[in-house]
Specification:
single chain, about 325 residues, alpha/beta, Spore Coat Polysaccharide Biosynthesis Protein SpsA, Chain A, 2 domains, eight-stranded mixed sheet, globular
C-alpha cells in the first residue's frame, strides 16, 4: 500500500495552523507523515505546531527562515518519505473525507498523476461571503479542471521531480505555473469534487486588493493569463473614470461622462459576475458587494500584472527562468 506525505508551509499564522490541524485530526484517512515548513514565524506558530506532536507522531517541523512558499514546499517534498504528496495551506479546513478523496485516484492505479480539490468558502461576514464566491477557481471550465492549486491538491512525487519542483523564483502564481508545467509535460490531472477544502477568504477590501495585486504580479512575471494590451485597456478606463470625477468638481457637466464610464465598466466588469451570483445567491446585498469586489479585483490584478510584466520585460532572469522551467530552451 502506497503511503502519503502531507505538506504545508506557514508563517506567523497560529490560528490558521489550529484550523488546519484540528481538521486533520478528524480525517477518516490519516497521513502517514506530516511535514510543515515554518518560514521564520515570530508569533506562537511553532509552539502551536509542537502542541500537535502527540497527535501526529510522524509530524516533522522544518525551520527555514526567509523562504517563500515555493522554497518551503520544495524543501518539504524533498524530505518526504513517501511517494504520494498531499498539499494544503494553514487556514484551510479539509472536510473529513478530503485526504481520502484527494489521494484515492493516485492510490487506485497509475492513470492519474495529480488531483485537485473543490474549494468552498467558509465565511463569517458578508464581505467574506462574496469575496469567496468571486475568488475561487471555476472548475466548470476545462482550463481550471486541468490545474491544481497548493490550497488543496495531491500528486506523485515523481511528477514533482520531473517538473523540477515549484518555481522558487516566483512569490505568487507558483502553483499555477507548477500545474501548467505538469500539464505541458503530459501528466494526467483529475478534478475530484468530492475532495472538499473549506477556506476563509480575505476579510477586508485592503486584503482583497493585496491578494489580487499579488496574483496579478505573479502572472505578469510569467506573462501568463492575460495580454498587456488588455491591462492597458482596463487601467486607461479606470484612470478616465477617476479624472472625469475629479474634473466634475470644476465642471459639473463632466459628471455625465463619469456616469457613462461607470455604467460601461459596470456592464463589463460587474454584470457578468452578477449574472452568475444571482443564480446561487438570493441576498439583495449581492448588488452592492459584487460590483465593489469586482472593481477592486479588476484594478488590483491589472496593476499587479503591469508591475510583474515590467519585471518580466526588464529583468531577463524572469524570462530565462520561465523558458528553462517550461523547457522552452
Amino acid at each position: 500500500m502506497k503511503k502519503i506525505t502531507l505538506i504545508t508551509t506557514v508563517l506567523n499564522d497560529e490560528e490558521g495552523i489550529k484550523d488546519l490541524f484540528n481538521a486533520l485530526l478528524c480525517q477518516i484517512t490519516q497521513p502517514d507523515e506530516v511535514i510543515v515548513v515554518d518560514g521564520g514565524s515570530k508569533d506562537n506558530t511553532v509552539a502551536t505546531l509542537e502542541s500537535y506532536l502527540a497527535n501526529f507522531t510522524r509530524l516533522r517541523i522544518l525551520h527555514a527562515p526567509n523562504t517563500n512558499i515555493s522554497q518551503g514546499r520544495n524543501l518539504a517534498i524533498s524530505n518526504a518519505s513517501y511517494p504520494i504528496i498531499a498539499v494544503t495551506d494553514a487556514g484551510c479546513r479539509p472536510d473529513k473525507n478530503w485526504l481520502f478523496e484527494i489521494t484515492k485516484p493516485l492510490l487506485e492505479g497509475d492513470e492519474v498523476d495529480a488531483v485537485s480539490s473543490k474549494i468552498i468558502a467558509k465565511t463569517n461576514t458578508t464581505l467574506e461571503h462574496y469575496s469567496g464566491l468571486l475568488s475561487l477557481p471555476d472548475h466548470a471550465t476545462k482550463e481550471q479542471e486541468e490545474l491544481f492549486y497548493g490550497r488543496g491538491s495531491a500528486f506523485r512525487k515523481t511528477l514533482w521531480e520531473k517538473v523540477g519542483g515549484y518555481p522558487e523564483w516566483l512569490y505568487t502564481a507558483e502553483d499555477s505555473l507548477f500545474a501548467l508545467a505538469a500539464k505541458k509535460k503530459g501528466f494526467s490531472i483529475l478534478y475530484n469534487p468530492k475532495a472538499i477544502i473549506f477556506w476563509r477568504p480575505r476579510n477586508s477590501l485592503r486584503k482583497i486588493a493585496k491578494m489580487f495585486f499579488l496574483y496579478g504580479k505573479g502572472n505578469g512575471r510569467i506573462a501568463w493569463g492575460g495580454e498587456i494590451k488588455g491591462v492597458f485597456y482596463w487601467l486607461r478606463n479606470h484612470i478616465l473614470l477617476l479624472l472625469s470625477f475629479i474634473l466634475g468638481f470644476i465642471y459639473p457637466f463632466i459628471w455625465l461622462v463619469t456616469a457613462f464610464i461607470a455604467l460601461y465598466l459596470y456592464k463589463l466588469i460587474a454584470y457578468p459576475s452578477l449574472i452568475k451570483i444571482r443564480i446561487i445567491d438570493k441576498d439583495w446585498r449581492r448588488e452592492f458587494y459584487v460590483p465593489l469586489i469586482t472593481f477592486v479585483r479588476n484594478i488590483s490584478s491589472n496593476l499587479g500584472y503591469l508591475s510583474g510584466f515590467i519585471e518580466y520585460k526588464t529583468n531577463p532572469i524572469f524570462k530565462n527562468n520561465l523558458d528553462k522551467y517550461l523547457g522552452n530552451n
